[in-house]
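Sample 3 of the quickstart, ligand aspartic acid:
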Amino acid sequence: MALCDNMELVIPREKERLYKAQAAERAGLPDETFSGGVDARSVDSHDTVGAVALDRHGNIAAGTSTGGTLNKAPGRVGDSSLIGCGCYADNLTAAVSLTGWGEPIMKLVLGKWAVDRVAAGASPDEAAHAAIEYLFERLGGHGGIILLDRDGRVGLAHNTPRMAWGLRTVAGVEIGVIRNWGSVFCSGRTG
Ligand code: ASP
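Result:
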């Protein structure tokens, strides 16, 4: 794969967001990043992409890619790259990928927590919802989760305003955006 220059990834919109966050920090204003309620980052949307997959041989896999959080400390290692936190897979149980406020996800080792619920008998749907509830109840965290077990059952949950998702099976492709606000569930298209 041809690598691009890192500077090609720096765009004016994101520079502006960063400078605004840094100015707010200098002014001693509260950090609104994932701080609960309708936070700026949730509304502006996130760039984390997660995938879980199961092949015909029963191999299960998870991947998570992110730009991290706005105004992060230099050298911060987020949940996405920590196995068991934002990403985890085990052929015997399930695969999981998470997005959201990484610090609480890391403290709770939430990916492994959710997969352990599946190992204990919960469906991926139950485990996904339990994980997001646990994230909020324990640490006031916000995020989203996708889960896939070794039988191909899926679970999706989030407590951010929305989370786009897509599902591909032998039967076809389904794409949707679940919105928490107003409980609208759109499937078959994004937006
Ligand atoms: N979880 C990521 C992080 O904290 C951010 C995100 O999902 O948008 O680095």
